[in-house]
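Dear V.,

Thank you for sending over the compound details. I've combined the ligand you provided, adenosine-5'-triphosphate, with the protein sequence from our construct and run the structure prediction for the complex. I'm sharing the raw inputs here so there's no ambiguity about protonation or stereochemistry in the SMILES, which I know was a concern on your side last time.
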Amino acid sequence: MNEQLLNEFKNGQLESLQVSSLMTLLMEQWAKEKDHEIKQQLLRSTVLRYADAESQLAELNRVKNRFIGLVAHDLRNPLVSIRGLSEILLNDRSDPLSSQQRDFLTTIHSASNSMITLVNDILDMAVMESGNLKLQVRKDSLGRLIRERVKVNGILARKKRITLDQRLSRIPSFPFDRNRISQVLDNLIGNAIKFSSERARVSVSLSRRNGTAIVSVSDEGMGIAREDQSRLFMDFPGLRNEPTGGEKSTGMGLTIARKIIEEHSGTLTVESEAGLGSIFSFTLPLEVRRCQTTEEDPK
Ligand SMILES: Nc1ncnc2c1ncn2[C@@H]1O[C@H](COP(=O)(O)OP(=O)(O)OP(=O)(O)O)[C@@H](O)[C@H]1O
Ligand SMILES: [Mg+2]
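Below is the predicted structure of the protein with adenosine-5'-triphosphate bound, written out as structure tokens.
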């Protein structure tokens, strides 16, 4: 239609009415093209501004992580001294304390202990967010580590008369970061105890499937509502579950645990239903993939 009008215009065959409709068509075409051009310019400048804001945000995040890391690090040393000195005073038999002094010192000791745990978690989060988590990987026995952590956490379980049992298949030593996996086990076993009522049962199991070690910690506690499960591994998820024995709950443990497991090329998952308990499971590859073996098992 447009082309036909143009040809007729070129050949001088157009009526004045047709000329005006051709002009309208051409104006509309021009307006469309201009509009498209303006929109493209706008889009280009928005993309540029967005990229700029993103790199500024990434830089600010790096500065924030460095700042948090420095503050947490500087807070840690005096806190460790306070905890250590209060421990010495509490255990000093040569100079007996009055019962009030003992109460005060016990409070100082437990408060400094909680603060050290918090500062350690903050340091871990800063390290992990900046992508600087370095694993100290060495061949070790996961079964032996689980038995050790079950024993340590047994003290907390006994306070709530919780039965803590273990079913561990024999699997050969393989490379993993002992301290970091210890931290994951403490959090999972600690959570199972913390969110279960008195006299409940918590079980830890170890098995092996397709070149992977699988550790599960199951409990008969309050469980986690389906709508809360998607937020479980976020920083400070603010879920409605409260510890049953007045224990501390900061909400960083699972985020840190998942990052540690993923750094080992494993996965950390949860199966849970409100009121019916939870099973937290993690896998670890028996062969090293991303991480490096640094030493042989000395035992
Ligand atoms: N076994 C469990 N049963 C019920 N709820 C759980 C269980 N494990 C975790 N949760 C819920 O998930 C939240 C996050 O767990 P996470 O271990 O990250 O934090 P936390 O134990 O509260 O504090 P932190 O580990 O930092 O000391 C908990 O606060 C709790 O609401
Ligand atoms: Mg926890």
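A first observation: DSSP finds seven helices and eight strands in the chain.

Warm regards,
I. M.
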